[in-house]
Structure formats: C-alpha cells, structure tokens
Design brief:
The complex is a heterodimer.
Chain A lengths: L1 E5 L2 E3 L9 E3 L4 E3 L6 E3 L1 H16 L3 E7 L4 H11 L3 E5 L9 H14 L5 E5 L10 H9 L3 E10 L3 E8 L2 E8 L2 E5 L11 H6 L7 E2 L34 H14 L4
Parallel strand pairs in A: 1-6, 1-8, 6-7, 7-13, 8-12, 9-12
Antiparallel strand pairs in A: 2-5, 3-4, 9-10, 10-11
Chain B lengths: L9 E2 L2 E2 H28 L10 H13 L8 H29 L10 H32 L13 H28 L9 H10 L4 H25 L7 H10 L34 H9 L5 H5 L1 H4 L6 H14 L14 H6 L5 H5 L7 H13 L5 H13 L30 E7 L2 H5 L1 H16 L4 E2 L10 H5 L3 H16 L2 E7 L2 H9 L7 E3 H10 L15 E4 L12 H9 L5 E2 L29 H11 L4 E4 L2 H13 L7 E4 H7 L2
Parallel strand pairs in B: 3-4, 3-5, 5-6, 7-8, 7-9, 9-10
Antiparallel strand pairs in B: 1-2
The chains are: A alpha/beta, B mainly alpha.
C-alpha cells in the first residue's frame, strides 16, 4: 500500500502573539526571526496515522510538502519518524497560494508520483486554519474523501474510517484510493530520534518547481490583514477553607454570572 | 585397624584410583563444555574497555572481592556469606588435596604433612565447622525468616537452587568431617594436628564397630568426591556461577559512577552506527553479559530499589535473572528482548538513582544497561508519548518547556538590587553560573537560582551566566536514551563554554553538575553550589547570621546525583550545621542509602502504571518518621517532587520543603 502524506511546515504555534507583526500595506504577516518552524500538528497526526498503517503491514509512505527550502527540515523529520520518501514542491511562483492553489499543486504532484492508495493530510493547518486543502485535493483528483478522521482500518480494497463529528463519532467505509483529513484522535505523533533525522540528510529529497508542476491561480483575494484587539482577561482564584467549599463558591460564582 | 584410603581399595575389581581418574576426567570435560558455551556467549558481546587503571581495579578486587566490603551492609547475611566465602578459600586446598589423594590411591601432598600440614588441617577443620554452621544457619534463615528480598510477589528467582547449593555445602562439610573422623578413629596421627571437627565426628562414631568407621569413611569419601564434582558442574548453570565470575566482575567494575557509556565503545560518532542501543542480548557489552553470570540473586538491589518499593514493575534482580536465563536458553529468536522479555514499563520505571549499583556486592551495573535499552526504544519509536513533546521542545528551544531562548534570563530581573551579567563570547568571569532549564523557567526553581546569585554577589564573586546561549545540559535527554539530541546539546553548550573564559562552573542542579562533569568531554571545572559555597561560609565570606525559626526540625534528603553518583554527602550537611539554630536529624535512609524522590530523571514527565504511591510520598513519610518538619534538599527535582508530595499528602500545614541555598540566603 502506498500512502501519501501531505504536510506543511509552519511557524511554531506556541510563539507568543505579541511576537507577530503585520505589514498592513503588503497585507502580510511579519514572522518573528528567532522562532523555530515545526510540522503543523494535525499533519504530524496524519503522518503518525500513515506510519501506524505501515507498522501493521507492508506499506510505503511518501511525504509531500509545499514550501520554501527550509521545509526540507520538516521533511527530514518525517523521514526520521519513519517515512520512506519525501518530495518538496518549492518555487517563488507558489508563494501566496491560497487553499485552492495549494490543493492544485499538491494533487498534480501526487498524480505525477507513483500510483498511490491513500492520501492523508491534517484536518487543518496550525497557521491559517482554513481546513480546505484535503477536501480540495479530493475534488481535484476525483476521489472519495472523509474529513476529521480519528481512526483507520484497512480492508481489501477499501477502508473503514471513524470520523469525529460534532455530536460524537461516525464510522464510514470508503473505496480506495481515497483522501482523508486526519484529526488528533488518530494518536500522538511518534518522536523522531535525532539520529534518524540526521540520517535523513543522506537521503535525497527531490525538489519539484513550477516547471515540473505549474502553479494555479489563487481564487481568494486578501482584502485586509490585521491583529484583532486583544480581549482583556482577568484571572480569579476562588478561595475556600476546604476544596469542597472552594468548589461551592466556584459554582455560585458561575451561577451568578449565568454561565451555569 | 590401620587406615586404608578409599581410593587404594578395589571396588568390583576396579581400583579406587581408576574410579577417581574417571570421575575427574568426566567432570572436567563436562565443566569445560559448559564453560565454553558461556565464554562463547561472553565473546558475542560488544567491546568494552575495562583494562584501564589496573591499580584501582586490584584495590577494588581486594576491597570488594576479598574483604567483601559490601557484604556486611546486610549484617546477618553478610556474616554467613563471609564465613562461607572464607571457608571456600581455605577449603579449596583441602578439596585439591582430597582429589589428589584419590588419584594417587591415598597419596598425600608433601607439604600437607609436617608442621604446616598440622596447622592447615586444624584450620580447615575449624572452618569446616564454621561453614557447616553458616550453611545450616543460612538454610534455617531462608526457611524460617523468609527474607523478602529472596522472594517477592511475582519474583520467584531460584529459591530451590539456593537450597540445593546450601545443602551441597552442608553435605560437603559433613562428608569431609566424617571421612576425617573415620581416619581419626582408626589411626592416631598426631602430626595431622588438632582436628576438632574430625574429633567431633569420631566422638559421634564412638561405640560403633571399627568396621563401621572404615565403611563410613570409604562411603563418604566417594560421596564427597561426587558431590564436589556435581557442584562444580552445577555452578555455571545458574546463579552459583558467581563463585567463578564474581571476582573478575569486581575487577572489571565501572570505576566512575554517574557517567553513561557511549552508544558503542570505540565509535566516536553515534551517526556512524547502524543501530543504537540494545535490542538483542548480544548488543550488550561483554562486561554486561558477565554481570548476568555474576548475579548471586541476593536481592539487595531490589530491596533498595525505590521503583520496586512503590510497586513499579521493576525488580533489578529479576531484570538480571530474566536476561541471564534468556541468554542461557537461547530463546533469542522466539521472544523480543527489549520491550518483550524486559517490558517497556520495566525500562522506564528505573530512575537511574544508582541504589542497586551501590548495594550490589559483586558490582553489577544496571544504569548503562537501562540506557542502552532506552536507546533502542527511542530508535524504534517505542518511546512513551509523554516524552515526545518534551524532547521536541528541547530540540526546538533548548529547554523542556519550549520557552523562547530570549526569555532564558528573565528570572534575573526579579533579583532585588542585583544585575546578573550575561557573558558574551570572549567575556571573562571568575565563576560561570550554569543555570539550566528548570532554574531558568520554572517559577519555583527560579527562587533557587535567585538565591544562588545572591550568594555569589554577597561573597563578592565575579560571575556571569550564559543567558540565551545556554542550552539544556542534556542529562535527562541522555538518560532517556536520545543520544543524538544529547550530542547536539553537548556540542552547542561546549561551543558556548569554549568561547567564554572562567575559572569555575557552578550549577544549581546536581543533574547538570553530573552531566557536565561526567558526560561532557574534557575536564570542565564544575562544582555543585553546595560544594562551592561551603568554603565561602567556612572562611566567613558568606555569613549565616539570622537564627532559624525555633522549633523547626530539619532533615536533609540526599539527591541521588549529588550523593550516590558523586559522593557529595558531607558539604550540604556541613553547610546546614553552620546555620544558627539548626536542629538536624537524619532519616533512616540517608547518604548512600538515600531514597530517590522519583523525578530526577525522565520520570518527571512520565507516569508508570501500577505505581502504588509516589516515591516522593514515601520519602516524605520517612522524613516525618525521623521527626522532621522541614525537608532540605539541594536538587530542584527533589524539591519539586517533595513539595508536591507534601501537598498531596495534605501535610502542607505541618511540613515544608526547602532548598539548601534558599535556606542559607534566608539566614544572611
């Protein structure tokens, strides 16, 4: 089984909000210089899901990412975690791509690669949170898809997936090949030992540019980019002589605030 | 009736001495075959350089091997072992004598005649009685007292084997005594010396027919010989192999505590290795395989193990027994060793506190083995998920909290009236204070760091810190088995340290102290703050003047990486004694038998299922039993764990935990 994982390298989501600046004229976020870049959390879950399928049987995992040259770090990490191959899509012409344009480039690249059985990506990215690339790829590739997947069971020619929905979970069956967007319920991503990551330096990570995969025009237009006014928050410690009393005081306070 | 040696008689037409030769050759052949198998297993291990510092090794051999210094830490059992061991040394000549007598049809070694013979025979007779008594005492002790360390729930060990061997020892003593008694009854060889055991035996035979003595003497001789060779062949089959391997094991012991062996001896860069750690038995070094041969199953390791004490699924004794039995049974292809035979919970239960190694009478090593097993788990992505984020944070930001490096020195802003210098490349200071991650970012531990800089300032020491350039020391990372990340941290820290000039490094944390001292290359001039401040207090540069609150009773908890791994038991105690109004009591488990707080290493971030109570909870109880209401420690992990345990136990109104430096500064 050939599993494709699409992942994005994003700025560390734990970067304090005050470290970000916005260039209103260019409508661009100015990122802090001293923060690290990481694999977007749900994408790491997607990779973990793929690696768990690989653990169970004879599978190959290929990772695709669209980004700058430094995105190779994230791909090396994925290789260190256990992925078999990685391909980077990088070209200045891909800059400012919206979800549709990203889905287009990724889906064309995946088509160009070896035949695949399953495409996994995170349910949404930790930076823009749009959550559209996975479904977009399914549409562009003409494949069935399921979003917010928390569990995968492979059957002969199909998969049973458990979706996380608003009021619980639902189980559905999809024929293969298919596209899944993965949620954190799939499991905590495994650690990539540094030795594995260093060994990944030996592996060739092909870079495909706009000549290989032509870009698509974005369909969204940024009108404004701004940092919202921060809400003032107050932290209150509810006192009580005993934990029980503190609990009662808390409940009373919440009731008075008409929250319960 | 003159004494005729049993081997000089004829049995069913076969001369006795022929029987002796047959028994000897068969026994030695069988023994050689078994030993050869063991040597093959040993040779299949990885390299391990253990031939350095021969003087220290010989001294250790005398101290731990011959004088058996560690045996008497368990006094009753120690005396028994001491008697049996000494008897074994003295009686080995007698055994040789008896075998040679048999081969020559009653021939006696020349030098066992005459006055030396008389002296030796008297000595061996006395020791036969002593060993007999010790053997019987040991059997009764096991039967009646049933010490817990020999058998714990689910840890059967090899109890029956212990009875068999003790029975054999008793049997060998009785048969030799009776053999000599038979000879004494039929001859009057004064030159053989004063033979109390033989006389006692002869006395028990008195009144019986003379022929009874002769028949008995002959019978017990052959039984003795057979029992002796059976014993010899039984030795390498299980735990009594220690009789042969314990002394070499002591000789080749690890000389420096605290450090961790490299991923593979002789390989500089772990990246050059195909795989890290130990996944198969033969991935262990030959010395670690020798450890398995040498375990006596005395259970002292498990008895002292804090993980065992709180119900974690780790028993150092069973760890060794399981691996030894696994090696002997050649089941390598049937069961996975790492994560199977030795479960991941067992591997992560170890706190690397070193209590087991401190106690083991034959110097068996556990920590390096555990780390090697962890290295394999890390490499094969079998790490508990709880570690993932910590490791990723350290990799990303150089600290386990994932906080920005730019905020690493923020704690210094809170030190009243004091500007803490941050050393840049090329800067010089008398003391470089290595703060490490917890003291840089954890609000509770920052108080200790602030106390240390206040202490340095008041002592007029010119010092500085590394600020954003400092990375986690990597102590926990290495002990977690993430060698690659540790090497990265080490390289970055070494580069930073190399570009600043200083005479001394002072650390907050015993773990950082230990790793800078033992795991980092070169001889970094590193001291724990308790070591550094003691002479300053003694020569009056730092003066504790204000009296402590009256009525408080203090006890000092020895952090494992300060005490057991680095022998620093006294400096913190000496500092405490200089504080006015100090009322210090010792807990029952203190100094080299201190009880781990449970969180010094990787376990701070990981819960082990099956734990009945927190180690720190148990430790708080010990402090309370000692009559203390203040626990002083000199390690931030101990502080955090013990404070947590005090709160969890609902004792926060009666007890408190404080750091040594915090306490010192409060009195200035």
């Amino acid at each position: 089984m050939h599993i494709i994982v699409c992942l994005k390298q994003i700025i560390d989501p734990e970067t304090p909000a005050e470290d970000f600046r916005v260039d209103p004229a260019a409508r661009r976020a100015i990122l802090p210089q001293d923060r690290g870049y990481v694999i977007s959390d749900y994408d790491a879950n997607a990779l973990e899901g793929a690696l768990r399928l690989k653990d169970r049987g004879d599978s190959k995992v290929t990772v695709f990412s669209l980004g700058e040259e430094r995105t190779k770090e994230a791909l090396r990490k994925a290789l260190g975690m256990g992925a078999d191959e990685a391909i980077l899509l990088s070209d200045p012409l891909y800059d400012d791509a919206d979800s549709f344009a990203v889905a287009h480039v990724l889906s064309q690249a995946i088509k160009k690669a070896d035949p695949f059985d399953l495409i996994l990506c995170g349910r949404q990215e930790g930076d823009w949170d749009a959550g559209q690339v996975g479904s977009g790829m399914a549409e562009l590739l003409g494949l069935p898809s399921a979003t917010c997947v928390g569990g995968i069971e492979v059957q002969d020619g199909s998969i049973i997936v458990e979706r996380i929905v608003a009021d619980g979970r639902e189980t559905i069956e999809l024929p293969l090949p298919a596209v899944l967007t993965i949620s954190s319920e799939i499991g905590v991503p495994r650690y990539a030992p540094l030795k594995g990551v260093m060994a990944a330096f030996e592996k060739n990570i092909p870079v495909w540019n706009a000549e290989v995969i032509p870009p698509a025009e974005s369909r969204n237009r940024m009108l404004d980019l701004f940092i919202p006014v921060r809400k003032e928050e107050e932290c209150l410690f509810i006192e009580g002589d005993t934990p029980e009393e503190a609990g009662i005081n808390l409940a009373l306070r919440l009731r008075n605030a008409k929250l319960i | 009736m003159p004494f005729v040696h049993p081997s000089a008689e004829t049995y069913f037409g076969i001369p006795g001495y022929v029987l002796s030769w047959v028994i000897l050759i068969a026994a030695l052949a069988l023994f050689s075959c078994t030993l050869y198998q063991r040597i093959l297993l040993l040779r299949s291990g990885q390299p391990d350089p253990r031939f350095s510092q021969l003087d220290r090794r010989f001294l250790g051999l005398i101290r731990y091997g011959l004088i058996q210094k560690k045996q008497l830490r368990y006094f009753g059992a120690g005396i028994i072992h001491y008697l049996i061991f000494t008897g074994f040394i003295i009686l080995s000549l007698r055994s040789l004598d008896l075998i040679i007598q048999g081969l020559g049809g009653g021939y006696e070694l020349y030098w066992l005649k005459g006055s030396f013979g008389g002296f030796y025979n008297s000595l061996k007779d006395v020791f036969e009685l002593l060993v007999l008594a010790a053997g019987l005492w040991a059997i009764l002790r096991r039967l009646l007292l049933q010490p817990e360390r020999y058998r714990r729930n689910g840890d059967p060990g090899h109890q029956s084997e212990a009875y068999l061997v003790l029975g054999l020892i008793v049997f060998l003593m009785i048969t030799d005594i009776l053999f000599e008694a038979g000879r004494l009854a039929s001859t009057s060889q004064v030159s053989r010396g004063w033979l109390p055991a033989a006389a006692l035996g002869a006395w028990t035979l008195s009144g019986s027919l003379p022929s009874t003595g002769a028949v008995l003497s002959s019978t017990v001789y052959w039984l003795h010989l057979l029992a002796f060779f059976f014993f010899l062949n039984f030795l390498p089959l299980a735990k009594h192999f220690h009789i042969i391997t314990a002394l070499p094991n002591v000789f080749f012991r690890k000389l420096e505590k605290g450090g961790i062996k490299p991923a593979r001896w002789g390989i500089e860069n772990p990246e050059d290795l195909d795989s890290l750690g130990v996944g198969r038995l033969t991935d262990f070094t030959w010395k670690h395989l020798l450890d398995f041969f040498s375990c006596t199953e005395c259970g002292r390791c498990s008895d002292q193990c804090p993980a065992r004490a709180v119900g974690r699924p780790l028993s150092p004794k069973m760890f060794t027994i399981k691996l030894r039995d696994y090696g002997y049974s050649k089941e390598e292809n049937k069961i996975a060793m790492t994560g199977g035979l030795i479960t991941t919970d067992e591997i992560w239960s170890c706190t690397t506190c070193g209590a087991c190694e401190e106690e083991c009478p034959v110097c068996i090593e556990y920590i390096d083995k555990m780390i090697d097993l962890r290295r394999h788990l890390i490499e094969t992505s079998q790490t508990p998920k709880s570690f993932n984020s910590v490791l990723m944070q350290i990799e990303k930001t150089g600290n386990p909290f994932g906080k920005p490096a730019s905020k690493r020195a923020d704690w210094t802003k809170e030190v009243p009236g004091l500007l803490v210098p941050i050393l840049k490349a090329g800067d010089e200071a008398e003391v470089l204070y290595f703060v490490d991650g917890y003291a840089s970012y954890d609000p509770r531990v920052q108080i200790i760091a602030q106390a240390i800089v206040q202490g340095l300032h008041r002592s007029n020491i010119q010092f500085g810190i590394l600020g954003a350039r400092e990375k986690d020391s990597g102590h926990q990372v290495r002990r977690l088995g993430e060698e690659g990340l540790f090497q990265n941290l080490l390289e970055e820290n070494m580069e930073t340290l190399g570009s600043r000039r200083f005479k001394q490094i002072v650390t907050t944390d015993p773990h950082a102290f230990n790793t800078l001292k033992k795991d980092y290359p070169g001889d970094l001039p590193v001291m724990h703050y308790s070591q550094f401040f003691l002479p300053l207090i003694q020569d009056g540069r730092l003066k504790p003047a204000k009296a402590l609150a009256p009525g408080d009773v203090y006890t000092y908890h020895d952090p494992c990486y300060l005490g057991r791994h680095n022998g620093l038991y006294d400096p913190p105690r000496q500092i405490l004694k200089t504080l006015p109004g100090m009322n210090l009591v010792e807990m029952q488990r203190c100094r080299d038998r201190s009880f781990c707080c449970g969180g010094g290493d990787v376990n701070l971030w990981h819960e082990i299922e099956g734990e009945e109570m927190r180690m720190a909870g148990k430790r708080v109880r010990m402090a309370r039993d000692a009559g203390a209401n203040v626990i002083v420690t000199a390690c931030l992990f101990c502080l955090l764990n013990l404070e947590d345990a005090v709160k969890t136990a609902g004792l926060d109104k009666e007890m408190r935990v404080t750091d040594l430096m915090e306490l010192v500064v409060s009195t200035i």
